[in-house]
Amino acid sequence: MTVTAASPALLHAVGDRALTWLDNHREHFRLTAGDLADNVAVTERLKPIGELALNMQVLFREGVAGSRQKARAGQLLDFAWRELLDGGNVLARLQQDEPLSPVPVEVYATFHELGHRHPGLEATLEVCRRTATWATLEMVPNRRLGVLNAERKLGLPPSSDFDQAMARTWLGQLAEPWTVQLHIAYDITHTVFHLTNWGEAPERIPPAVADYLTRYLPAWLEDWADLEHWDLLGELLVVDACLPRPALDAELWERYAAAQSPEGAMPIHQQMPRGDAAQVFDQVHHPTLVAAFASAMATSRAMSAV
Asked: pLDDT value at position 100?
């Protein structure tokens, strides 16, 4: 079957609308005084901040942002580091209080790559990484890949073997493709994200894994598009853009773009939720960040093919 590739203009428009919405709702990323008093709440609120930074970094790296987008992305990154994270102090305090938590190092790694430094956090992290528990703390295999990738970004020696961690993942074992349920699908996408450093190095995908994904990804894309699970579909579209021969299927991208709200937010599933602005933000910030990520990767690949 012949697949028609989506136009770069369509791919770019999805990301431009998503970035606009994220910028317009930036205040909802902010940690409240109540959040800062509770390490569990801090950990939960750090995830979207880390994802915001990652997406802005991808936008810069792929070189597909126009001058307006680039300026907006830079302002968002500065806002995240200086105001949301208090120049890294929020991460440093959490690392001191929760010395075995991988969350501060994973969030910090992105800002470190972008030139930000917090010596206090790095000193605390050095002590934590000397413990045997740092390397042996039990976590699902693709989460271990995330820690190892963060260490690589920070220029630190790996705390365990990356190839062995990859081999223990669901994707690394090339499991039966018909077992791909929702949580497994997210394990697959995040394995690819950590393996490629969020799409920077798609050549790191082992050939057998790339062949496996090339064979079965089209069916998974169709299934989750039919279910209108836009968050997961966006992540799978990123995986598509990481493959040696990405499809960038025009029909799938048109369905995906049609699900986006006029303001740029992407619903997680089916239609946009309604209600209190903060509650709606909590439900849709992740799929909207994913839309920006998928757009940047797909636009870059489409432009490279021109």
From this structure: 93
State the pLDDT at residue 304: 86
Q: Record the pTM.
A: 0.95
How many angstroms separate the CA atoms of 29 and 12, rounded?
A: 24
Q: What is the pLDDT of residue 306?
A: 65
Which residues of the chain fall short of a pLDDT of 50?
A: none
Residue spans of alpha helices (H) in the chain: 8-24, 33-36, 39-62, 67-79, 89-97, 103-113, 119-128, 132-136, 141-153, 162-167, 182-196, 207-226, 230-242, 250-259, 277-305
What is the pLDDT, as a whole number, of residue 4?
A: 87
CB 184: neighbour CB atoms within 10 A?
12
249 phi, psi to nearest 5 deg: -55, 120
- For 129, the 3-state DSSP assignment is coil
| CA dist list (Å): 9 to 12, 149, 156, 174, 296 | 5, 32, 39, 35, 12
Q: How many residues does the chain have?
A: 306
CA distance 272 to 295: 19
Question: pLDDT tens digit string along 277-298?
Answer: 999 999 999 999 999 999 999 9
Which pLDDT does position 305 carry in this prediction?
76
CA distance 247 to 51: 25
Contacts of 50 (CB under 8 A, 6+ apart): 103, 106, 107, 110
| Domains, the chain | 8-305 (1.50.10)
